[in-house]
Structures are given as structure tokens and as C-alpha cells.
Amino acid sequence: xxxxxxxxxxxxxxxxxxxxxxxxxxxxxxNGRWATQRGLPRIAGHYQGAEVVKDILxxxxxxxxxxxxxxxxxxxxWGRPTVEVNFLMRLFERLLxxxxxxxxxxxxxxxLLGELDALPLSLQREMQxxxxxxxxxxxxxxxxxxxxxxxxEIVRACRQVAKRVEQxxxxxxxxxxxxxxxxxxxxxxxxxxxxxxxxxxxxLSNFLLWQLAYTEIYFTNTLWADFNREEFRKAIExxxxxxxxxGKL
Length: 249
Ligand code: FPP
Description:
The protein is an alpha/beta fold. Helix content is 41%, strand content 14%. It contains seven helices and six strands. Helix 1 (31-37) packs across helix 2, helix 2 packs parallel to helix 3 (82-106) and helix 3 packs parallel to helix 4 (121-134).
């Protein structure tokens, strides 16, 4: 069987062979159910989910996975109860503040994908600070999608490209996939090799619609708040058994 692209990463624990995904994207689903099952408010699930994010990010550093992109808040999530939305916004802000030092130590370069202007100002300030301080780091590229919609991202890219055509900087016939790709939030990062969605749901939910064109997808029933290194290892091992043909034979 043909294996996924082989890249050498020196820091791997011996059980994980060489063909690692360069970029893993995650739809972190099931926090609310995790909390409800324990008789806790839904926000307790998000709190626990944040602990899992920290561990999976460390794991990427340890194993040599270069890019991690997580779906933290979709444009549709504004429709949740105000108390939950407010909690999430405060949680994001606190995490950015509290994790900054560790991100620096671990060489994490943070990027945020989404319409950030609509977020609370104090959160926007914390985001900008974290982006500025981590932008030179190169160990792990950590993308957090907040107030993100895959369709909106494509519309935004089209507008940017259309403006360049209007200004005479670009000919319509010269528009190709690379130009569109470089107008997306993910710019020149490689597309995800592996998408993980937890909690048994099997859909894309408007996440990275362009970037996921040839991504391998792994669904697990495990709720995000219960996800851990062992579950992550299983997902990677499953990916490593895939035969990636990109539409060819
Ligand atoms: C989906 O579970 C989860 C979210 C909408 C929020 C995810 C946020 C975190 C894990 C917090 C920290 C993250 C970062 C990156 C700073 P759900 O609430 O839809 O679960 P349910 O389907 O069981 O209701």
C-alpha cells in the first residue's frame, strides 16, 4: 500500500513512523455534551476543551507536526445563548494572555482566521499582541479560527482579487488557484493533510472549504473534552494507512 508523503521528523516517539501529516486541522466538537453528561453547565465543557487544545499543541511540537488549525468559534456560533458566547470570548482572551509565555518558549507562531473586527475590543487587543509577539516563531504554526466561515473566507478572497482586477493590477484571465489560495486567511500554508472531527458528527460545518479539497478526514466518537494524545496518535496512525492519490491512479 502506498503511504502518505514521507517527511523526516527527528522528535517522534518511536511508535510513530515518519509519514506524519504536516498540517492537522481539527473540528473540536462535543464540549457541550461532555458537560451535560456530567451534570455540568456547557461552559465547563469548553473549559475542559481548552485544556485539551493546550495538550494537543504541545503534542504537535513534540512530534514535529508543523501546522495545527483548530475551529474555535464559527460565525453561526453567535446564535448560542449569550452566557455561553460571553464565556467563550473571555476564555479565548484569558488563554491568549496565560499561554503567551509558553507559546514563546515552544516556538509557536499564532495566527487567527476569521472576521476579527466583530470580536470584543479587549479580545482583539490581546490577539494583536499575541500575533505580534509570536510572529517570528517557526516551530509550530498554530491557527485558531474564530468568527470563521469557510464560505465567507472565499467571498472575501474573491473581493480582494476583484479589487486587484479593478485597479488594473491583474488580468481576469490570470486568476488561478494560487492567487485565490494566497487571498485566503491561510495564505501560503500547506493545505491540511488530515482533518479530525470529534464527537461522532460527520460534516464539515463550513470549515476550510477551499483548503480541505484533498484532505484525509478522520471522525471519532470521542468528545473533544475527552480527546488526548493517545486519541491523537490513533488519528495519525489511521492517516498513515491512507492511500493518498490526489485524484490520480
Ligand atoms: C464545539 O462543541 C466547541 C466549540 C464551539 C468551542 C470550542 C472552544 C474551545 C475548545 C475552547 C478553547 C479553544 C481555543 C482554540 C482557544 P459544542 O459546544 O458544539 O458541543 P456540543 O455539540 O456537544 O453541544
